């Protein structure tokens, strides 16, 4: 299993942009892998107490019993990142951050990738004619609602833009009581416009949901 993880790590690393600095999430992942391998090296049944404690603190699972499960989780994660990187033709570090930040903000990664593709084609420097900025095409006024003191240039930062964009979508999902399609339409058209159309008995669909999800609506 260790060899599988190491191979996947190498594949993911090869797809990353040059001179990439390790993100905190990736650093933690690599630390976890190193700890797992160390635990196996000394014997899973007799893993060092300090190693077991650190694994437990990082991942909230028992060690050494949890070591194999941690390895499986990391293998699945690396496979998803590699697959998304290849599917969308994007660097693996971007695929990694979309995956991890989406999960942290309560958004399904497939939805998150579809959103970024539809909004910016994965272009961190994208700016729309109306002034929406970055990977998730945030309006500065909307972004400030989620992070006070933010200025427009801050939205060109990859992680900042992804985090606020996904948090905004999550807020809309809650507003529309779990209806992802209405939330996506509100993200694209604005919640006031969607609410107005719904109040008038009109269908707010404009094709955006299909762009993001890659399928027809099912309402």
General description of the model:
The protein has eleven helices and no strands. The longest helix has 22 residues. The protein is an all-alpha fold and 219 residues long. Helix 2 packs antiparallel against helix 3, helix 2 crosses helix 4 and helix 4 packs across helix 5.
The residue-averaged pLDDT reads 81
Order of helices and strands: HHHHHHHHHHH
Structural class by SSE content: mainly alpha
Largest sheet: none
- Could you tell me the strand content as a percent range? under 5%
Low-pLDDT residue intervals, each spanning 5 or more residues: 30-48
Radius of gyration: 20 Å
Number of strands: 0
Keywords:
219 residues; mainly alpha; globular
Short description:
It is built from 11 helices and no strands.
Write the layout of secondary structure elements.
Elements: H1 2-14, H2 24-42, H3 49-59, H4 67-88, H5 92-104, H6 109-120, H7 140-146, H8 158-175, H9 180-189, H10 191-199, H11 208-213
Helix pairs in contact: 1-4, 2-3, 2-4, 4-5, 5-6, 5-8, 8-9, 9-10
């Amino acid at each position: 299993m260790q060899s599988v993880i190491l191979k996947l790590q190498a594949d993911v690393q090869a797809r990353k942009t040059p001179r990439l600095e390790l993100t905190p999430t990736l650093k933690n992942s690599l630390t976890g892998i190193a700890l797992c391998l160390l635990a196996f090296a000394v014997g899973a049944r007799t893993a060092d107490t300090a190693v077991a404690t650190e694994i437990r603190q990082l991942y909230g699972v028992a060690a050494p019993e949890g070591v194999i499960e941690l390895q499986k989780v990391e293998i699945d994660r690396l496979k998803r990142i590699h697959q998304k990187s290849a599917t969308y033709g994007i660097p693996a570090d971007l695929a990694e951050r979309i995956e991890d930040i989406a999960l942290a903000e309560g958004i399904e990664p497939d939805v998150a990738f579809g959103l970024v593709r539809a909004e910016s084609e994965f272009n961190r420097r994208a700016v729309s004619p109306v002034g929406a900025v970055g990977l998730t095409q945030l309006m500065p006024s909307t972004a400030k609602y989620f992070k006070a003191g933010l200025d427009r240039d801050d939205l060109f930062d990859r992680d900042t833009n992804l985090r606020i964009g996904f948090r905004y979508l999550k807020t809309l999902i809650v507003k529309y009581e779990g209806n992802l399609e209405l939330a996506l339409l509100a993200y694209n058209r604005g919640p006031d416009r969607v609410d107005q159309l719904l109040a008038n008995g009109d269908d707010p669909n404009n094709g955006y949901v299909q762009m993001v999800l890659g399928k027809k609506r099912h309402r």
